[in-house]
Design brief:
Blueprint lengths: L11 H12 L11 H15 L4 H12 L5 H16 L9 H14 L6 H14 L1 H6 L8 H12 L7 H17 L1 H4 L4 H11 L5 H17 L7 H12 L18 H12 L6 H11 L8 H19 L1 H21 L5 H15 L11 H5 L1 H11 L6 H16 L1 H15 L15 H10 L1 E2 L3 E2 L3 H17 L20 H19 L2 H15 L8 H12 L13 H16 L1 H15 L1 H6 L11 H6 L3
Length: about 625
């Protein structure tokens, strides 16, 4: 920059453009009507041609910058300098001394409320466009120049008192320092964390909130722990949770594309950014899932549960186990002991949290802490689940047990052992097998044991017991009534309980037949085959009579039934899936299919009478 004109010998045209810019009336920055646009272009052209140097402009603007009675002039003057630095057309060639001088100049102006935005933008331009020189600069105390900028910003600027545009510029500068100059600013220690808290507090604009949440996350994820003291951590937690739950809905004419989900994701990432936050965040979110004081009740509960599970996934297994007991107690209290509008969300949060807690435990191992933390929880749930439909605690307990079984093989085996005595009694001890009201629960447990490729975590002994009990439960079902012959009621979807019960029982038996070996699946599949294809008649007369009773009924398997009915869909799916899995079961199905699909086969087989008419749902299912 040496060799330029002195402040007193500025090119007249450039000097006139500078004065015109500074003295212009305040308009929307960058608008076509703003006279500063043309004036700035003339100044940049002077810099580009070498008619003027940037420090010459600084000297000329000194009068405006020091005029305490002209706040607009000070604001415009600092803006002009920042814009000259930002504009690549200026083609500035700054040496170390120039950069150092400008850094100190802009930092000094941070204490002037009118100059904050321009000074911040000037510092951003120096950090981005003159990084090579900046990284070599040291203050008198040996601190990097970037650390001096951060300290001056935190000390001189009270960010919440400024407009959205200025706050956005401050947040951009802090983000730049944390992202690209983290090594340089780390030496500030707790000053850095306290400064970040100061710039994000009381923020309400969605555009700035996204930046604020990102700053909090970066501070805790990327900076050393000493940069955020315990007091800073508490302040940061209080600042972040003041925004929970996020209730933002963008206006119809929104130009920025920020949604409530964007803010929720960013807030969750900030709350989950450090395990150090867990001791504050987890109790807060668990309380929010039951003590509703703000927002709509269901939305707050959903957000709290999704956030606590997401935070556990970020904190990791060790921290999750520390807080698992509190989660289990809260979940049981809300799902089993009281009524909550968000049972599904509690179930999902439990499963996700247990997956994390056991994430470092290999399959086949049972950690010692399980007996202390989780075993009593499962035992209580199993006791409640055994009470049946007469107990309000039963349905919620069953859902939570399924979630636990899905989370880890060790939990699957514990749940299986706890519920087997009442869920899957042997056929000899209880001819009715699995209680009809518990069929959906049994199906959930068996699904939790599924593995890819049609395999299961259940061993043959367990499969044999499950097939016997579920087959007995299926044969105990009767059209128009439950397993005890009582008259069925209507479900919300219009189906009778017998239809729904048959569908669930068929899905359960079908799934067990798929994952069992061919020998174990033979007897159970005979029930499915007979219900689908009564001919040829089975040797078991009682089975034939039971199947005929269902076929004669108007619903769910009678002539008027539709292939879309749940019981029909379950029957067809079970038969086809098992036959595709086991060749022997396909062979069991083939004779009956030939009899109904090709009537001539029945005649050639010497049938005494023609086969009964095929129901419409079976007609639709057969290949054309």
């Amino acid at each position: 920059m040496a060799g330029g004109a002195s402040a007193g010998n500025l090119d007249p045209k450039v000097k006139e453009a500078i004065d015109r810019y500074v003295k212009a009336e305040s308009l929307v920055p960058g608008s076509p009507e703003d006279p500063r646009v043309a004036a700035r272009a003339e100044v940049v052209s002077g810099l580009q041609s070498g008619k003027v140097q940037l420090l010459d402009i600084v000297l000329h603007l000194e009068t405006f910058l020091n005029d305490s009675g002209n706040p607009q002039g000070r604001r415009h003057a600092i803006h002009l300098l920042a814009e000259c630095l930002e504009d690549p057309n200026s083609q500035l060639r700054l040496n170390f001394k120039h950069v150092e001088t400008l850094v100190h100049f802009f930092c000094a102006k941070l204490c002037d409320w009118q100059c904050v935005e321009g000074a911040v933008k000037g510092l951003i331009a120096l950090l981005q466009q003159h990084a090579a020189q900046m990284r070599m600069l040291k203050e008198d105390d040996g601190a990097p120049s970037a650390a001096h900028i951060a300290r001056s910003l935190f000390k001189g600027v009270h960010t919440p008192s400024h407009t959205q545009q200025v706050r956005k510029a401050v947040l951009d500068l802090v983000k730049l320092l944390l992202d690209d100059w983290s090594a340089e600013v780390a030496g500030l220690g707790s000053v850095l964390g306290d400064g970040v808290v100061g710039v994000i507090e009381e923020e309400r604009d969605p555009r700035n909130l996204l930046l604020s949440f990102s700053l909090a996350r970066t501070l805790l994820e990327s900076c050393a722990p000493e940069c955020a003291s315990d007091d800073c951590l508490t302040s940061l937690f209080e600042s972040l949770t003041s925004y929970f739950p996020i209730t933002f809905t963008p206006p119809k004419d929104d130009k920025y594309g920020i949604t409530g989900d964007d803010l929720r994701v960013a807030l969750t990432a900030a709350l989950g950014s450090s395990p150090r936050l867990a001791k504050l965040v987890v109790p807060f979110l668990l309380d929010s899932s039951k003590d509703i004081t703000v927002g709509t009740e269901e939305a707050t509960i959903r957000d709290a549960l999704d956030t606590v599970a997401s935070c556990f996934e970020r904190y990791g297994p060790l921290v999750t186990r520390e807080h698992l007991g509190d989660l289990l107690r809260t979940t049981r209290d809300q799902v089993v002991r009281t009524s909550t509008p968000c049972t599904k969300e509690f179930v999902i949060a439990l499963r996700r949290s247990l997956v994390v807690a056991l994430g470092d435990i290999p399959a086949g191992l049972t950690p010692h802490w399980l007996s202390r933390t989780v075993e009593p929880f499962l035992k209580t749930l199993a006791d409640d689940a055994s009470l049946g439909e007469a107990s309000l605690a039963s349905s919620g307990s069953r859902l939570l047990l399924i979630a636990a079984a899905e989370a880890h093989p060790a939990l699957l085996q514990r749940v299986w052992a706890l519920v087997t005595p009442w869920l899957l009694p042997s056929a000899d001890a209880a001819p009715a097998g699995c209680p009809s009201g518990a069929l959906p629960f049994a199906l959930g447990i068996v699904r939790a044991a599924e593995l890819p490729g049609g395999k299961t975590r259940l061993v043959p002994r367990q499969l044999k017991l499950a097939l016997a009990a579920s087959s007995a439960a299926l044969r105990a079902l009767r059209p128009g009534g439950d397993a005890n012959g009582e008259e069925s009621g209507k479900h919300d979807d219009g189906e009778t309980s017998s239809t729904a019960g048959l569908a669930v029982a068929l899905r359960l038996v079908g799934l067990l037949c798929q994952v069992a070996n061919e020998d174990l699946s033979k007897d159970a599949f005979a029930i499915v085959r007979t219900l689908l294809l009564p001919e040829p008649a089975p040797s078991d007369a009682a089975l034939a009579a039971w199947a005929a009773e269902w076929s004669a009924a108007q619903a769910p398997l009678g002539e008027a039934a539709s292939p879309e009915d749940s019981a029909i869909e379950a029957l067809l799916s079970a038969a086809s899936a098992v036959a595709a899995r086991h060749p022997s079961r396909a062979a069991d199905l083939a004779p009956g299919l030939l009899l109904v699909a090709v009537p001539a086969v029945a005649a050639s087989a010497g049938a005494a009478t023609a086969p009964p008419p095929r129901p419409q749902w079976l007609e639709a299912a057969l290949p054309k």
